[in-house]
Every structure is written in C-alpha cells, then in structure tokens.
Amino acid sequence: MNAQSQAREDLVRIFRAALDAAAPDRLTAAALRGELEGAPEVPALLSCAGRIFVLAVGKAAGRMMAAAQHHLGPRIAQALAVVPAQAHCARAIHAARVYPGGHPLPDANSAAAAQAALAMLETLTAADLLLVLLSGGASAMLAAPAAPLTLQDKIAVTSSLLRVRASIAEVNTVRKHLSAIKGGRMLRHCNGARVLSLILSDVRGNDLATIGSGLTASDRTTFEEARGVLIRHSLWGRTPEAVRDYLEAGAAGEFEETLKPGDPILARVSNVIIGDNGTALAAAAAAAESIGYRVDRWRELYGEAADLGRALAAHLTAIEGERRCVLAGGEPVVTVRGNGKGGRAQELALSLSIELDRLDPAARVLCLCAATDGVDGPTDAAGGFASAASVGRARAAGLNPADYLARNNSYALLKACGDLFQTGPTGTNVTDVFIALVNY
C-alpha cells in the first residue's frame, strides 16, 4: 500500500473514532446510568418518578430511544420517537410509536408527529417524568404552528430563510415565534410533570435555546426580533400575510411570548448536554495520536466553505517537520450561486484541493471533510477527501475544478475523481469534522 492510500485509511479510521464517540445510544445510556460527567443527578430523577414518558426527536432519535428502552424497560409508560423520514422503519424501536419527520423543511409528517406528541403530553401529571431525547433536526421534524398559522405558512417562511442563508440562530428565532411548542412552549403542555432532557448538540456553543429550537429551554428572543430577522433579510414583504399579522400582534403583546428565563416552570426542568462536536474531536485526536500523529487544533469551521478552504490550505502547507494531524469542527455555509449539486463539506474539500494545488502541488497533505450525520446538504454523501492530487486527477480527466466550484457542483467533481466520501445516515449529528494529515 502506498503512503497516500495508507493516509486515506488513517483518515477514515480517525473519522470513525469520532463517530463512535458521538454514538447517541452509548451517550444516552451513560447519562441514564449516572456516568456522564456533570449530570450525576439523572438516576435520582428517574428513581423518583411515578410514570416515565419518553419523547425522542431528531436525527439521533432512533438510537437514543433504543438506549432508553433498554435501560428503563417496563418503567416506560408511553414512548414516541420522531425520526428522519429516510430512517422510518429502518430501525425497530420496540413498544414505541415511531413517526417520520421532514427535514430540512417541516412537512405533514412533522405536523402529525407534533400532534401525537402533544396528545401524549396531555396525559402527564405532576407525579410523572417526561424524558426528552433531543438531537439536531428536531426543529423541522416536529412542527406545531401557533394558531391561527398553518403548516404551509411555516414551510414558506423556513424555506425563505434557508434560501437567503440566515444563520441557524436567526432561523430558530423565527421558528420559535411561529410555534406552539418551540422556545420552551412545550413545557406549558406538561401539566407540571418533571422534565429531563438529554441533548446531543449540533449547535455552536451548545446553546439550549437553539438546539431543536429549544423545546424544553427558555428563550431570550422576542416577537420583535423575529420580525427583525425577516426585515433584515428583505423577506418581510414576501412573507405570508398571516405570518406578518401574527408577528406584529405578538410584538404588540397580543400573544404570549416564548418561555423566558426565570419562569417558575423551569424549576421542574433539567437540560443535560450529553455530547457535542468536542466529544467527536477529542476521540479523533486520541485516534490520531495512537497511530503516530502529533495533533493540532485549528479554529472552528464557521464561515463560507470556499473561504475556509483557502485559509486551511495556507495553514497546512506552512507546516513542516513531523507527521501532523490537524483537526477542526463546526459547520461552514455555502452561498449558492450556481446550479450544481453539493454540500458544505464537499465545497470545503473542493476549495481546499484547488488551493493546495496552487500553493504546493507536491505537499504531502491529505484531508477529509465530512458531516457527522452522513448527509452533506441535499446529497447522499457525507463529504469528500481533499488534496492537490485531486486536482491533478480532475485535469487528467479533462475537468476544470475551478469551474465546478464556481457552479457549486462539488459533488460531481469529487465523484469523478474518486474523492467522494459516503457513509449513509449515521444516526448521530454533532456537526462537521475536518481531519488533515500532513507529512504522512
């Protein structure tokens, strides 16, 4: 095996270690056993509960629910899981009702799932415990529009915000103020029951109000701020009239705000982060060190994917000496200007490859950019490999990498070069992982 083939195998091994560390079932089980650092009170909450109800929502819902059922068994009175539509029925979750949920846009399934969840919550009493298992994707997968809004209103607004590349915090500020359950509003349906949320974070800084739009967390944003997001992105005039009227009425105090810090309801709520991007990166670092690499951390991957690719190439080509593994995590964005197919991790890989070739075609640098959920944008790939050699293979095939980047067509270029990285849906979600091997 040549050095580059070995380096590619090492990259995959390191990425798999990151995924294993972020395994939702393992993290959920550890939390329920009281083995999670910072949350030793979980077993006591479970033991004091009368009946236990479980609601799992998000890309990791299936694996989190399976762990809860294995640990709690017959103590669970009712269980409901809202899983990605493509995973519906792919994983048997015994004794739980399973609903598919739409993503990245809510759909009729998302609304049906929310109604089923609310119906379950109505049966709670103050003696019961609601165990919420929350992961990324929940905002779209569980949709309960605030009256008098409709599902179509929410779809239209969310779609518009995604098209203009609004930040996840901005999108969720609006979502929360169009919802009957987000922004902590779900807690108002729990009849005083104790609530324990175990949360797998896909959000920068682990902001509880942003993960899943804060189903069980307080929210500092306001109706006026939600209105401001739409105005700032020049969407207000194109927003459905019913939504404009609702937000204006809310800003005037005619509708109840999202749950604010200090609300008495929160005294009965415990929100516990069980894993995040840092969990994955720590395991990746340990795996890299075990195969002889010195590990460096780069800054977080936030910003335009193409810009990050150029910055990373400059950093990596300046490294000299021993074998080095450079790690970073986060979630780049892509401003779509072309009509190609790709995702943020693939665009990062392509931009990085082009810049590596420009700066130092002979550099011994091989990288992997991948989404931990296995789904990069609207594609069946998790991400892609990047190196100067990628550009050489593209040119040998008569392809112009810069043209593919300009058309946001990274998927086609990486596939043609044999650099597409495909895992299928992984059942976890802690944003993206970047791994570079230098002087391999």
Question: Which regions are unreliable across 5 or more consecutive residues at pLDDT < 50?
Answer: none
Number of domains: 2
Globally, the shape reads globular
Second-tier CATH architecture of the largest domain: 3-Layer(aba) Sandwich
Which percent range describes the beta-strand content? 15-25%
- Write down how many β-strands occur, each being a DSSP E stretch of 2 or more residues: 12
CATH topology of the largest domain: Rossmann fold
Mean of all residue-level pLDDT scores: 95
Number of helices: 16
Cα-based radius of gyration, to the nearest Å? 23 Å
How do the strands line up in the largest sheet?
3-2-1-4-5-6
Would you mind describing this structure in some detail?
With 440 residues, the chain is α/β, with parallel strands linked by helices. It is built from 16 helices and 12 strands. The strands form 2 sheets. The protein has a 6-stranded parallel beta sheet, sandwiched between helices. It has a 6-stranded mixed beta sheet with strand order 7-8-12-9-10-11, sandwiched between helices. Helix 8 packs across helix 9, helix 9 packs across helix 10 and helix 12 runs parallel beside helix 13.
Layout of helices and strands:
Layout: H1 3-21, H2 24-32, H3 42-48, E1 52-57, H4 61-72, E2 76-84, E3 97-101, H5 108-121, E4 129-135, H6 138-141, H7 151-163, H8 168-177, E5 194-200, H9 223-232, H10 241-251, E6 269-275, H11 277-290, E7 294-297, H12 305-317, E8 324-330, H13 344-359, E9 365-371, E10 383-386, H14 388-396, H15 401-406, H16 410-417, E11 420-421, E12 432-438
Parallel strand pairs: 1-2, 1-4, 2-3, 4-5, 5-6, 7-8
Antiparallel strand pairs: 8-12, 9-10, 9-12, 10-11
